[in-house]
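Please decode residue identities from the backbone states below.
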């Protein structure tokens, strides 16, 4: 533990390329060009590893939002993207993926500076993940079509009936701060493959990689107005985007609280909505596991990205016969997950994204302690000269009424409970308003599949956690969201199905 307490958390200096990017004049990417905002308002860019302000981005005005939506509307209505041969759309998307690969190092650094995640993690997970979103969906540009269908109630041969898949239209895409570039690409990829035009807004805390993405969209040669990227606050620019009458679809990833607001705001104009929201994912460890091999996986399921993951394995249920051993095994990973500055090459976990998030997470830890939870590991913040570091934390002696058990903390905090049998743990796992992800660790194949069928959640992982692949649908049950992203289901969400019936 000595090594953990003596970590130097001073942020490293930035590369020339990153500094030059931070020094750029704050602008918006609208209609294929970098343009000035209609007003002077900006948002600070803060490095959460130091707490220092390192740049500024535009806080888009209502007029800016209207310009971006008008550009997307015009691009969609004159068919300049959907009207292209699918091979051209596919090629343009692959060019964008190539450019993301070319800029991988800078993108990983910008993500580390802006979000606080370790640069190594951003380079290994976020950037390749973003690339695969674009590449996988690029192929669908040429492969999605309708069906020829025979009627049921009319004589065979009396009508010719078929379906056509058409793009939904102008999309507004709003993403959170935990995986900024990955989420941005996960959003634009299916929209572009379907033939839609889009206005994307990153979270106000983490705009840098979305702005770099705009550079690459321009270089890849997308027609003007097909992808517009604007920065701004959620309650102003985001709200304006969601309520805009010229928008056909909203895709949002973020908190359940804001997801509910957006869903209501979309109703008046009946916009299509997909929502990927919060979670409080259960992780069940059955008595048969090899504890030594399993505990680090369970720890990774909560401490990866400092727990700022919608599917973070934040509710641990370990069988009573191995409960203490699992917690002991997880505690042994404290050194590995000890938070470090994001540009420290040894970092596996960085600071939290912002002071607000730091206060929120520490507030939950304090509430847990007040409610009687015992701290098995962490529960505090390490020494640093600025920055928003929280030690990886395990809380035990908790009960289902405590806020730390019920509410999404979005930090490196796991609550651990014991269970006796499979039916009991399935009930405990489902005792939540969320249903995004769940993990089951066992060598008993039958137990794994029985739990997979009992747990109400969009994804169930067996002997792993948080694994996401662009070919596999992802989304939530219950208050964790509406609709699915990724896979063919992700493309569907950007298409209307038109039925054509011709009397013969
Ligand atoms: P968090 O609470 O984790 O910051 P939010 O759900 O508040 O997550 O934010 C996710 C995204 O939603 C961000 O891009 C934010 O700007 C945006 N947002 C926040 N409030 C609104 C709103 N009322 N309408 C539209 N977008 C919003």
């Amino acid at each position: 533990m000595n090594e953990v307490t003596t970590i130097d958390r001073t942020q490293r200096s930035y590369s020339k390329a990153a500094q030059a990017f931070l020094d750029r004049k704050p602008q918006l990417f609208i209609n294929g060009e970098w343009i000035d905002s209609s007003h002077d308002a900006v948002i600070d860019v803060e490095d959460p590893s130091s707490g220092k302000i390192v740049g500024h981005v535009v806080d888009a005005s209502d007029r800016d939002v209207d310009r971006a939506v008008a550009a997307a509307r015009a691009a969609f209505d004159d068919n300049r993207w959907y009207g292209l041969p699918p091979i051209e759309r596919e090629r343009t998307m692959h060019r964008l993926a190539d450019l993301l690969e070319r800029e991988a190092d800078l993108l990983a650094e910008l993500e580390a500076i802006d979000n606080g995640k370790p640069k190594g993690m951003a380079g290994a997970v976020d950037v390749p993940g973003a690339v695969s979103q674009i590449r996988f969906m690029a192929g669908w540009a040429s492969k999605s079509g309708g069906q020829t269908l025979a009627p049921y109630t009319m004589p065979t041969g009396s009508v010719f009936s078929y379906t056509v898949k058409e793009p939904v239209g102008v999309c507004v895409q709003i993403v959170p701060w935990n995986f900024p570039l990955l989420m941005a690409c996960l959003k634009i990829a299916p929209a572009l493959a379907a033939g839609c035009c889009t206005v994307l807004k990153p979270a106000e805390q983490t705009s840098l990689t979305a702005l770099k993405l705009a550079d690459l969209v321009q270089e890849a040669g997308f027609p003007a107005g097909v992808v517009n990227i604007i920065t701004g606050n959620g309650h102003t620019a985001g709200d304006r985007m969601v309520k805009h009458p010229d928008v056909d679809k909203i895709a949002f990833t973020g908190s359940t609280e804001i997801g509910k607001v957006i869903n209501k705001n979309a109703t008046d104009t009946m916009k299509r909505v997909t929502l990927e929201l919060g979670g409080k994912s259960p992780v069940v460890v059955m008595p048969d596991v090899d504890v030594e091999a399993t505990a680090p996986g369970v720890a990774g399921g909560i401490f990866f990205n400092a727990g700022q993951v919608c599917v973070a394995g934040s509710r641990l249920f370990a069988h009573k016969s191995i409960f203490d051993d699992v917690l002991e095994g997880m505690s042994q990973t404290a050194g590995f997950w000890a938070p470090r500055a994001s540009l420290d090459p040894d970092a596996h976990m960085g600071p939290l994204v912002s002071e607000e998030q730091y206060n929120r997470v520490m507030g939950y830890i304090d509430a847990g302690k007040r409610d009687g939870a015992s701290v098995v590991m962490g529960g505090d913040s390490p020494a640093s000269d600025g920055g928003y570091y929280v030690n990886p934390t395990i809380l035990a002696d908790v009960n289902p009424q405590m806020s730390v058990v019920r509410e999404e903390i979005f930090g490196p905090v796991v609550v651990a409970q014991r269970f006796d049998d499979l039916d009991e743990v399935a009930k405990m796992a489902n005792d939540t308003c969320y249903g995004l992800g769940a993990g089951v660790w066992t060598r008993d194949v039958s137990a794994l599949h029985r739990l997979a069928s009992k747990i109400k959640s969009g994804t169930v992982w067996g002997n792993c956690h948080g694994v996401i692949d662009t070919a596999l649908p992802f989304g939530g049950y219950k208050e964790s969201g509406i609709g699915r992203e990724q896979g063919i289901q992700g493309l569907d969400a950007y298409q209307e199905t038109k039925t054509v019936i011709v009397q013969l």
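Observation: The mean pLDDT is 97.
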